[in-house]
Design a protein that fits this description.
Elements lengths: L3 E5 L10 H9 L4 E3 L13 H4 L5 H6 L9 H16 L4 E7 L1 H11 L6 E7 L8 H5 L9 H6 L6 H4 L2 E2 L9 H11 L5 H8 L5 E2 L20 E6 L7 H14 L6 E5 L5 H4 L1 H11 L1
Parallel strand pairs: 1-2, 1-3, 3-4, 4-7, 7-8
Antiparallel strand pairs: 5-6
């Protein structure tokens, strides 16, 4: 039976970001489903001040967030509900990018029997529990370009707010900031592509989705075939960090290591160069 690809977005992202890749998969005959995680996407009550023009940063700082209080359990319940319904019609390949790997790993632990394959697209795959602060800002700098750029668009205090708020739309009005964000996230895309990507981004993310249940378990997650799309030109999660993620996961399941595929793309190359990703995904199944 033809598998269905199901996509979990990265931090501050939502189902819209997977549109170009889903179109390419459709051309190859594969159905797909992109998930809006709790607090994200078109149904979320996002701050109106984020979309105002001009923006009122003071109002944006004070606005409540749909992400406050969202936990890993909320994410897992959301994904498992969708996966279980789709699995009734055939195999499910569950994929995630970046921070979405946290939820992907937890779902792999929760319902391995429902999953045909797990696919990490330059994504986190925790092998030990860390605090949210450690996961988002590792003790040792890894050479990524994203941290410095994100610091310039952060709004408010994460500890005080209970969620992280990033003003991605600020890049639209500041050419130097736009260039810095693009270099970190989508250096291989056109300016027009990156503007379109920025317009899909949600301002908020909950780091409460990092918890012990996202640590991969050999007896659960380790039963599912898993692939890693290693992005050689990624400047958000540099390739040496991806290699460490792969090696640490392989040490947990040495008899079922990652099936690794390297693409010379940026962190969100699936948006700027979706045809290459669709071709790799099609070969996996």
């Amino acid at each position: 039976m033809t598998p269905t690809f199901v996509f979990i977005p990265g931090a501050s992202s939502n189902a819209q970001a997977w549109g170009p890749l889903r179109n390419e998969l459709a051309m190859l005959g594969f159905p797909s489903y992109a998930i809006d995680m709790p607090g994200h996407g078109s149904s979320a009550d996002r701050p109106a001040s984020y979309f105002a023009s001009p923006q009122d940063i003071e109002a944006l700082s004070a606005a409540p967030s749909p992400m406050k209080g969202v936990t890993l359990d909320d994410n897992v319940r959301c994904v498992v509900d969708i996966v279980s319904r789709l699995a009734a019609h055939g195999p499910v390949v569950l994929a995630a990018n970046s921070f979405g790997g946290i939820t992907l790993s937890a779902v792999g632990n929760a319902v391995p029997e429902l999953l045909h394959r797990l696919v990490y697209i330059s994504a986190a795959c925790p092998t030990r529990f860390t605090t949210p602060q450690e996961e988002v800002h590792p003790a040792e700098p890894d050479g990524n370009l994203l941290d410095a750029a994100v610091a310039k668009i952060a709004v408010g205090d994460v500890a005080e707010q209970g969620f992280a708020r990033l003003n991605w739309r600020a890049g639209n009005g500041d050419p130097s900031l736009f260039a810095e964000l693009k270099a970190a996230v989508m250096a291989d895309g056109t300016d027009a592509q990156f503007r379109a990507f920025l317009d899909t981004m949600d301002p908020d993310e909950s780091y409460e989705v990092i918890g012990p249940d996202c640590v991969i378990r050999a007896d659960r997650w380790g039963r599912v075939p898993h692939s890693y799309l290693r992005l050689a030109d990624d400047r958000s999660i540099p390739v040496h960090t991806q290699d460490r993620i792969i090696a640490e996961a392989d040490a947990v399941t040495p008899d079922n290591p990652f099936d690794v595929h390297t693409l010379a793309t940026s962190h969100v190359g699936y948006f700027s160069r979706p045809g290459e990703f669709a071709a790799v995904l099609a070969r996996l199944v």
